[in-house]
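Methods — Computational structure assignment.
A single polypeptide chain was analysed. Its primary sequence is given first, followed by the predicted tertiary structure written as structure tokens.
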Amino acid sequence: MRRKSNVYQTYLKILRRELIPAMGCTEPIALAYCSALARETLGALPDRVEVEASGNIIKNVKSVVVPNTGKRHGIPAAVAVGILGGDASRKLEVIADVKEEIKDQIGSYIEKTPITVTPLVSDCILDMIVTVFHENDSAKVRIANEHTNVVWIEKNGTVLLEKDLSEKTEPEEEMPDYTLLNVHDIIDFADTCRIEDVKEVLDQLIEKNTAIAEEGLRNDYGANIGKVLLKTGSDLRTRAKAMAAAGSDARMNGCELPVVICSGSGNQGLTVSLPVITYAKELKVSQEVLYRALLISVLVTLHAKNGIGRLSAYCGAVSAGAGAGSGIAYLYGGREEVISHTIVNCLAITSGIVCDGAKSSCAAKISTAVGTGIFGYEMYQNGQQFYNGEGLVVEGVEKSIDNFARLGRVGMKETDQEIIRMMTEKQ
């Protein structure tokens, strides 16, 4: 692929836009960012807070532990830490450097400060509004569609920033054309990409995600899925699943280490990277081959997720597992035919996994998705595949990806609403 071509340059923009570090689960962190920006706009410590959030935000913040909050979870914790200790200029690392004295204030601030939460009826699946008050002053910030996409800032009734809700980028950012993603060009890009163009983002992906996975295996986090897996065996497949799961164990349970995300998700960032890294070490491939395999894993995942959206009832680990399986196939020398069948085989098996919010069981879902991605490759290596007309599988990898994306975006829309209702009902 020519370096100056539109596709090549677009893929670089996509990688640089997607592979960014985040501290904690991205939905509560987006709320913390929104709250930090609201307080900054207000110019004072809020004595009252109103939060409006779409169902998927409520779903994904409900059970996950927010870092630097003393193991607290839920919307009040995310809002409080953002207000008290957040640095809005850091965006998804907004609460990366909260001081100890601030952590000690979070509990009392939540107790004494009214923080109301109201479901937000919106056409945007990812949508939140934080309104803060201090005496007679108020400020309001709204984020929609993307975790750091600020569409509204207001102070005392005066609008300071306003964007169309259909826009999905920040004012200074140009949205790359994700429709240019396709399996043929992804492989061509991975084969021919100049390593210097991607080395920085991929080095960060490797370094940060490996660090949190190792932390997850060292210490006690959630259900310790990574550790449980390693107790069942030490073969390569199990180790690959365990590394990805251990990263999620730590991340879902308040670990104060950053993760490089993919498709707006730290869990997907862990899934696309750690299994490929584990296989690359075992196979003793060069660093360059690892980089190229990671490009396959990341871009296949983004391609599979593009038609679904950032949040849905469709577990994002499924797409990331297909990406990881594709990256591993690449390490073994597989190219378009092998990778295409790996993707279809994987999606045909695990596409029914639902997302019922961020929490400890995400690590187990990641393990399942990674195992299925690897199995999808092994199926084709053994002369087996799923054929056109079997379920949602149709002729051609691109049409099959479109079908599974439609399942997640359209077919599971009511499922998503029912999951949210079940999770928010008083038990």
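Note: The chain is about 55% helix and 10% strand.
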